[in-house]
Amino acid sequence: MAVFRGQYYHNLDEKGRIVFPSRLREVFKERSDKRLVVTSLDNYLLAIPYSEWSAIEEKAKKHSILKKEIRAFQRYFMSGAIDCKLDSQWRLLIPPALRERAGLQKEIVLAGMVKTIEIWNRDSFEEDLNVSRGRSEDFIDKAADLLEI
Q: How many CB atoms lie within 10 A of CB 40?
């Protein structure tokens, strides 16, 4: 199955829509589903294909909401999630509340993250990427276990 990868610099249009780049479109075409769930995480948005979101919900159902941390996570991550669909021109409308939470203005970045797509304010993305570059030694050993290169 195709995965999301790459960094794509784009602009939001005046209505708050993003045009998805052709590489990301191919993944949706392969899945034959243009539905996404978009929610906030840290200082960016996370766009999750509907099939992946369904798996997240199934796992979430297995945890007790009597646990404070579970409630906090669900309140933050799941309750703010909004069903979205790519239109016939491969645009995604980002609702105003989510644009505000992520500080999205004109310039944005779509970052393919294998199963999901992160949507960032361009300045925030570049700042976070620079911090990550400076910390690469902190996580390279963990990545080696995952990548098996």
A: 19
